[in-house]
Design a protein that fits this description.
Number of helices: 1
Helix content: under 10%
Shape: globular
Strand order of the largest sheet: 4-1-7-5-6
Largest sheet: 5 strands, mixed
Number of strands: 7
Radius of gyration: 13 Å
Structural class: mainly beta
Strand content: 25-35%
Order of helices and strands: EEEEEEHE
Length: about 90
Amino acid sequence: MTGLYLEGVTWDGENKTIKKQNPKELIYQMPVIKINPVEANKLKLKDSLKVPVYVTQNRRNAAGVGHVFDADLNTKEHPSHWILQGVCMVLNTD
């Protein structure tokens, strides 16, 4: 799937993990990723962050709905570090 943009972090392709964003880089275009739907009760994740994926950078549309799904991305930091930074992915940049 293409057309996903990270907001608040950048992607480290070598280590396949999120990392601190570069100065003056507000959004980062994700490389092509494969999305596999899995039942939540069968999913066992370690060192990952549930990143919300929204339609736009406003994080909602005119109807007040904008959340599409949650993507699990690898991280070396504690998830709370990224949550406080407001990390998300968006489908459309404004």
